[in-house]
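Request from the bench team (R.T.):
"We need a structural guess for the complex before ordering more adenosine-5'-diphosphate. Sequence and SMILES attached. Just send the tokens back."

Command: build protein-adenosine-5'-diphosphate structure.
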Amino acid sequence: MNIAVLAGGFSPERDVSLTSGSLIANALVDEGYDVCLADVYLGIEIGNDVKELFNREKKPVHKVTHTVPDLDALKLSSGNGEALIGKGIIELCRAADVVFLALHGAMGENGQLQATLDNFGIKYTGSGYVGSLLAMDKDISKKMFVGAGVRTPDWMHFSAGDASVCDIEAKIGYPCVVKPCSCGSSVGISIVHDRGELETALAEAKKYEDNILVEKMISGRELTVGILDGEVLPAIEIIPTEGFYDYQNKYQAGKTLEICPAEIDDDILESLKEQTKLAFAALRLSGYARFDYIVDAQNRTWCLEANTLPGMTPTSLLPQMAQAVGMSYGQLCAKIVSLAGKK
Ligand SMILES: Nc1ncnc2c1ncn2[C@@H]1O[C@H](COP(=O)(O)OP(=O)(O)O)[C@@H](O)[C@H]1O
Ligand SMILES: [Mg+2]
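Reply to R.T.: structure attached below.
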């Protein structure tokens, strides 16, 4: 079976994705698949026979640096202009039995790529284009959560130009969290405690996107919950050694304690299970996903967001959850492949 693993892409999270992609590709090789790994943005050279690109060779593993990649520089050096799908990618995907989406952020996670693949009748892993789009936009997701009875922190949404500090102070208050609406990996996110910090945070979020969300900060324990083929996986508690779960704490080794399975009361666990199933259905997701929560002092669970293409290195959260129920990294990758096309 030929699997095309798509990674990279024109996204601030491209480094993380290239790491996940190379590791997924290697795990799938070990599981007996013929695999081709490609950077969806940079494209791939197709020789005489596209099928020759699929093989059982191990791919070099990409390392995540501690800074967000410079996309302007990448655009200039690639010469791709506005094209998000590089040369040869569609041809490669058409030759694959399944496309494994190892992308994070932007067009990999917002449904654009899924819609393109649908139009070519190509099977891919994870959610379809509608679910991906609903989950990518934190404002839309939160509206769907509210409609489905999934508890989510109060928030305001606006275009960066229309942000009124006074309005935010009156409706949300401090401390609050400023986020670009559709980024991930905590890119552009700040927790703020006063007007000065709020103004700086709004300017920071605006660098990434014009759509901004300001949310009430919930103090409590941070938990993340995975779902795979309809089953909720064990929760993980996330405890950064310093600050909140930002880009550096997410991707630099030793910066965050991850307790799997989380040591939590049964009533919290039950609530997380129920809320995760509701949230998954509300956003019309398929295959697998991961949801981020804060649990407050009253044991109430607050859903922050859905991740339709969660981190997939062997030490990432979802693979750890799978491990906790006896599923190896390779088995998890193979399971995700087997769910492709079941929408
Ligand atoms: N409302 C909130 N209250 C407390 N912490 C938050 C809140 N929103 C976000 N955070 C912190 O910021 C991190 C990233 O926010 P999240 O909404 O999950 O976006 P991302 O898509 O970047 O992961 C969370 O893991 C959490 O540590
Ligand atoms: Mg998150």
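Two things stood out. Residues 292, 305 surround magnesium ion (ligand 2) (CB under 6 Å). Residues 14-30 form the longest helix (17 residues).
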